[in-house]
Amino acid sequence: MNYNFCLQIGHITRDIQLSYLPNQTPVIEFGIANNRKWTQDGQKREDAMFIGCRAYGKTAENIHKYFTKGKPILVEGRLQLDQWTDKQGQKRSKHRLVVNRFEFVPSQTPQDAPQATNAPPPVAQPPPMPEPPVGSHDPAKLNYPAEPNDPNQLYGGTGDDIPFEVNDVL
Q1: pTM of the predicted protein model
Q2: What topology is assigned to 6-107 in CATH?
Q3: Closest CA to 7 of 68, 97, 104, 105
Q4: Sign of the C-alpha dihedral, residues 10, 13, 16, 21?
Q5: Which residues on adjacent β-strands are paired with residue 11?
Q6: What would the pLDDT profile of 116-139 be if each residue is shown by its tens digit?
Q7: Residue ranges of the chain that CATH labels 2.40.50.140
């Protein structure tokens, strides 16, 4: 079985430029960077990985609209191998993540959070309910049936018809 699926979280490395294919399909190319931190022999280490990404259609338009350089993003898609020959005649290749879906990732600071451009106004909270008169909520006056002392009776039986005691799961 073969399965080509990739999920990455990182920060956008450059401003995103939107362009169009000859058939007018929107396309963007952008990069993300993510860091890996670890300790080795008592020394803190860090490694950065840079990943090229490409998105098409509505996904491309939305990423272009809501993300800029430095913003965190979660992308999911498939890896694709691009191959070409450079000007010197050398064969070159590069893996790229073709983005099928993305998600917003919370920023480190509140001012980095995306602001809704056409969000509805906040919903007004209803006024608080008035307090009931003193003594009107006395449980003794409400005529509730007495609660059984045996938890097995709470479920309408003796407990003989189930393979465990109710006390075991409460």
Answers
A1: 0.59
A2: OB fold (Dihydrolipoamide Acetyltransferase, E2P) (2.40.50)
A3: 97
A4: negative
A5: 33, 72
A6: 455 555 555 666 655 555 555 555
A7: 6-107
